From TrEMBL:
PROSITE patterns: SAICAR_SYNTHETASE_1. InterPro entries: SAICAR_synt/ADE2_N, SAICAR_synt_PurC, SAICAR_synth, SAICAR_synthetase, SAICAR_synthetase_CS. This is Phosphoribosylaminoimidazole-succinocarboxamide synthase. It catalyses: 5-amino-1-(5-phospho-D-ribosyl)imidazole-4-carboxylate + L-aspartate + ATP = (2S)-2-[5-amino-1-(5-phospho-beta-D-ribosyl)imidazole-4-carboxamido]succinate + ADP + phosphate + 2 H(+). PANTHER family: MULTIFUNCTIONAL PROTEIN ADE2, SI:DKEY-6E2.2. Pathway: Purine metabolism; IMP biosynthesis via de novo pathway; 5-amino-1-(5-phospho-D-ribosyl)imidazole-4-carboxamide from 5-amino-1-(5-phospho-D-ribosyl)imidazole-4-carboxylate: step 1/2. Residues 5-235 form the SAICAR synthetase/ADE2 N-terminal domain. The gene is purC.
Length: 241
């Protein structure tokens, strides 16, 4: 049973529940890119991403990562802990792709020496700009202790996701996470982990376009978008913790 709509984002809607500590997150088929300049839908994406994210949140919990996930309650809905989302998008990169290639002139597909953590200011009006720790502090987006925790948490999540996706025969190129603070001030992994938020390449395919199994197929109009999500879902759900 969902209560009142609290917030509608680009890919999900959050509803209240009878319990003030629990929200309902409903995944949508809507897809956006380039700060919502490009809009569309991906058939069945809500159900696919909800299934993928539920499975991955449960895997991460078994690895000691605290998440907002409580339980999946329908094909496209999960109960989550109510948290205060930090206005920072935390990106972890293992291989150069997307915005870092444009920004630093790196070649697409170039492996990075070590995982890189980047912060982006979650602000649609500004187009989510890249920010440094100094900006985080200046804008009061998080405390210095939270910044230290965020970086470690992001690297820990990357480590566990790399192991997991390796077992799916997928390469984890990069991903974005959002972190929330619960009523006790503990940081929890929130939002979602899915092909909307991760770059995933098929390990078995060398062709740089054919191997893409994530939202880049939608961003770049590469076709077979839903099929790519379906393939990721199949592999993720078949991977037991
Ligand atoms: N990402 C995301 N939401 C955003 C921006 C990025 O989930 O609003 C993910 C994206 O799917 C990729 C990673 O974060 O896995 C790094 O994205 P990047 O900075 O390269 O931006 P993009 O190329 O998508 O503009």
């Amino acid at each position: 049973m969902s209560g009142t709509k609290l917030y509608e984002g680009k890919a999900k809607i959050l509803f209240t529940t009878d319990d003030p500590h629990i929200l309902l997150s409903r995944y949508k088929d809507d897809a956006t890119a380039f700060n919502a300049l490009k809009k569309g839908t991906i058939a069945n994406k809500g159900e696919m991403n909800c299934a993928i994210a539920s499975h991955i949140f449960q895997y991460l919990e078994t690895q000691g990562i605290a998440t907002h996930f409580i339980k999946q309650v329908s094909p496209n809905e999960m109960q989550v802990a109510a948290v205060q989302i930090l206005p920072i998008e935390v990106v972890v990169r293992n291989i150069a792709a997307g915005s870092i290639c444009k920004r630093l002139g790196l070649a697409q597909g170039q492996p990075l020496k070590q995982p890189l953590v980047e912060f982006f200011y979650k602000n649609d009006d500004l187009g989510d700009p890249l920010i440094t720790d100094a900006h985080v502090s200046m804008l009061d987006l998080a405390t210095p202790e939270q910044v230290t925790q965020l970086k470690q948490l992001a690297l820990d999540i990357n480590h566990h996701l790399q192991t997991f996706f390796e077992r799916c025969n997928l390469i984890l190129v990069d991903f974005k996470v959002e972190i929330g603070s619960d009523a006790n001030g503990h940081l929890l992994l929130a939002d979602e982990i899915s092909p909307d938020t991760c770059r995933l390449w098929d390990k078995a395919i060398a062709d740089p376009t054919a191997r893409i199994l994530d939202k880049d197929r939608f961003r770049q109009d590469l076709g077979n978008v839903a099929e790519a999500y379906q393939e990721v879902m199949k592999r993720v759900l078949a991977t037991i913790s």
